[in-house]
Write a structure and sequence with these properties.
With about 160 residues, this protein is mainly alpha-helical. About 55% of the residues lie in helices and about 10% in strands. The protein is built from 6 helices and 4 strands. The strands form 2 sheets. The chain has a two-stranded antiparallel ribbon with strand order 1-4. Strands 2-3 form a two-stranded antiparallel ribbon. α1 packs antiparallel against α2. The longest helix has 25 residues. The model has no long low-confidence stretch (mean pLDDT about 95).
């Protein structure tokens, strides 16, 4: 499997909305994060899960890599917190998604932490890198919120 660090480095380098200082800060943060050797899905969200809650089947492993599991959890949080409903999504989904995002993210993280310990400081660093990397994906309606989150997460001047 490809190395997650390599994938994230490339994504951050091509993320057009990032300023040079933001890009440098995100890349420096990534360089200090653990590599890991675990299977990471890279795109885990409700649209990539089939079956029941008790026996889900995860599909679409095209972005799978090897890395730190905390990085994969952070990617899922970014998708749940900032992801725009796909084109053609029903009006009900588009209307309810913003209302329930916080509860969904909280539930996801609480359930993950119940099963696996998650170092809070390490996780926050992965979350910052994942927000920066998400900006490489051309989804204009997500970019203002991603940029606002990144400005809060990076050091002043970045």
């Amino acid at each position: 499997l490809p190395d997650l660090h390599d994938d994230l480095r490339q994504q951050i380098q091509r993320a057009e909305p990032l300023t040079v200082p933001q890009r440098v800060a995100a890349l420096e943060l990534l360089a200090d994060l653990p590599y890991g050797d675990r299977l990471c899905h890279g795109d885990l969200h409700f649209g990539n899960m089939l079956g029941s809650w008790s026996a889900p089947v995860v599909i679409d492993w095209a972005t799978a890599s090897r890395g730190d599991p905390a990085a994969d959890v952070a990617r899922t949080e970014v998708l749940l917190r900032f992801g725009a409903p796909p084109p053609g999504a029903p009006l009900l989904i588009r209307g309810l998604a913003p209302v329930f995002r916080g509860a969904i993210v909280s539930s996801y993280l609480a359930n993950y932490r119940r099963l696996h310990p998650l170092d809070g400081l390490l996780y926050e660093r992965w979350l910052t890198v994942r927000v920066a990397a998400r900006l490489a994906e051309p989804i204009p309606q997500e970019q203002p919120k991603l940029m606002a989150s990144l400005r809060q997460r990076l050091p002043a001047g970045a």
